[in-house]
Every structure is written in C-alpha cells, then in structure tokens.
Design a protein that fits this description.
Radius of gyration: 21 Å
Strand content: 15-25%
Largest sheet: 2 strands, antiparallel
Structural class: alpha+beta
Number of strands: 6
Order of helices and strands: HEEEEEEH
Distance between the termini: 48 Å
Shape: elongated
Strand order of the largest sheet: 1-2
Length: 107
C-alpha cells in the first residue's frame, strides 16, 4: 500500500474549502487565503535545455511548426505561453550555433 503524502490531511482540507494556516518565522499563524497556487508544468529536455512540455493542441494559441523541404514529416507542438514557446525554439536551434533571426526569439 502506498504511503500517504505527509501533507495529505492539509491537501484534503484545502480541497474541502477549509481555512488553512501556516506558522511564519515569527511564530504567528497566518492564513493562506491570499497566496496564488499552480501545478508545476511538466518539462522536457531538448538539447540539454529544460523546457515546459507541450500542452494539448486545443488549449493553446502558441505553436511551433517545423517542416523541411522534401520531407513529409512535420513537427508541431503547442505551448501554454509565449515564453515556453520561445524557450523550446531556442533549445531546438542550439546545436546549429548560428544566428537565426526570429522576431521575439530569446537571446
């Protein structure tokens, strides 16, 4: 049987809408109501660079499409935001060691 997560009780309470508190470095109990949370995006490694993983095609407006003349195969991936898309673009061109001009490309 799997061992429950050490904070399973807290996570269930959050899911149930209970108010959660944490003890700050001064020893005061403070509510978590004003914090923002997210699920960490999955990542992939391209040419030694860790990047956000693609998201399902139907939920994104950021896309990389690569096709090569004479080849029927095409690469297409959608990403959650522009920064994730540009990071993958830069990781893909890294091995070429040449300057490629692309509007908005990270340097």
């Amino acid at each position: 049987m799997k061992q429950p997560h050490k904070n399973a009780e807290i996570l269930r309470a959050i899911a149930d809408g209970d108010t959660i508190e944490w003890m700050n470095p001064h020893g005061d109990w403070v509510g978590f109501t004003d914090l923002k949370w997210r699920i960490k995006p999955k990542s992939i490694t391209i040419n030694g660079v860790e990047c956000e993983a693609p998201v399902p095609f139907d939920v994104s407006e950021y896309r990389i499409c690569i096709s090569m003349p004479g080849l029927s195969n095409r690469f297409r991936a959608d990403f959650a935001n522009e920064n994730a898309t540009l990071a993958v673009f830069n990781a893909l061109i890294k091995p070429f060691n040449e300057t490629i001009t692309c509007e908005g490309a990270l340097t």
